[in-house]
Specification:
- The protein has helices at residues 15-27, 38-52, 78-86, 113-120, 200-214, 266-277; strands at residues 2-7, 30-35, 58-62, 65-66, 69-70, 73-74, 96-100, 125-128, 131-133, 142-144, 147-149, 152-154, 163-164, 169-172, 219-220, 230-236, 239-246, 251-254, 259-262.
- The protein is α+β, with helices and mostly antiparallel strands and 282 residues long.
- The strands form five sheets. Strands 2-1-3-7-8-14 form a six-stranded mixed β-sheet, with helices on both faces. A five-stranded antiparallel β-sheet has the order 15-19-18-17-16. Strands 4-5-6 form a three-stranded antiparallel β-sheet, with no helix packed on it.
- Strand 18 and strand 19 (259-262) form a beta hairpin.
- The longest helix has 15 residues, at 38-52.
């Protein structure tokens, strides 16, 4: 059994992929799954296997991503999802998982979601080596290290490549044995925003940079399978705004208007804010 899956959300960037794949998959030997979150995907995989009683050969997740995220698979839950996937019927050491999102096979700030997932899973895990279009299932995948859209340069992450076909994918091994012993760790899922305390200088630099930038004319966001490196809320003159940093912090996006600005200074700001992303929600 080969599975191609996409999140069931309202993001219109994936609408064309979902509409096409839902019709394409059954006619080409693939099973299409629309999922709510990572654990809904695992549950549906188990249900399909119970009906088909076949080994799962490949799973491709078509979603938004960056080096630390592939939709609902993120650094905070990758180990749990990977271990849980291993227990799904039909999944074995030969099951290949494709994290078919932008830059999932690259590393930024010491983080790589494909590598982290592979450390918990026992089969091969493959991540994209750049901004990806097309799919492995349809054999149309291609990626670019960086690109320009509407005059905005979406910078590359380290190791990004222009590639097609199999060369799109960075392949990661996985551990064969699970280490035992030690303390039992209970992991609690959290969500939402939390207030973080920046230094006066950091706070002013962030506020000033964003205020100056949003006064300049924006352009439309590129329709790529990118996830934000960081989402943050900040009070401006007319109230609190939510913004996203993309492309390693070099692009600022308003998720409400889907407007973007080139933000070359953003990479330094992203590096200073990334540690707060690992804190639990309030």
């Amino acid at each position: 059994m080969r599975v191609v899956a996409a999140p069931r959300d309202e993001n219109d960037v994936l609408n064309d992929d979902r509409a096409r794949l839902s019709g394409w998959a059954p006619a080409n030997g693939w099973t299409y799954i629309a999922y709510r979150d990572a654990f809904d995907l695992l549950a549906q995989l188990g249900e399909f296997h119970a009906e088909a009683a076949e080994d799962v050969r490949e799973i491709e997740i078509i979603a938004h991503g960056h080096p630390a995220i592939c939709d609902d698979v993120l650094l905070g839950n990758a180990a749990v999802v990977g271990e849980s996937l291993w227990r799904v019927g039909g999944v074995n050491e030969h099951t290949a998982v494709y994290l078919s999102s932008c830059n999932t096979g690259l590393e930024f700030n010491g983080e790589c979601i494909a590598q982290t997932f592979a450390a918990a899973f026992r089969g091969p895990v493959l991540g994209a080596r750049g901004y990806i279009t097309g799919t492995h299932a349809e054999q149309t995948e291609q990626c670019v290290a960086s690109f320009t859209f509407e005059g905005i340069l979406y910078h590359s992450y380290a190791g990004g490549s222009d590639a097609t076909g199999d060369e799109v994918w960075a392949r990661f091994g996985s551990r064969i044995n699970i280490a035992g012993g030690g303390r039992v760790q209970v992991k609690i899922a959290t969500s939402g925003f939390r207030v973080v305390s920046l230094t006066g200088k950091e706070e002013q630099e962030l506020l000033s940079a964003v205020e100056q930038l949003v006064r300049t004319p924006p352009v439309s966001s590129a329709r790529m399978r990118m996830a934000p490196d960081l989402t943050f809320a900040i009070p401006l003159a007319d109230g609190e705004h939510v913004f996203e940093l993309l492309a390693g912090g070099t692009v600022l996006r308003d998720p409400v208007t889907r407007s973007v600005w080139q933000f070359e200074r953003g990479r330094v700001l992203l590096q200073s804010l990334l540690p707060y992303r690992k804190l639990p929600a309030a």
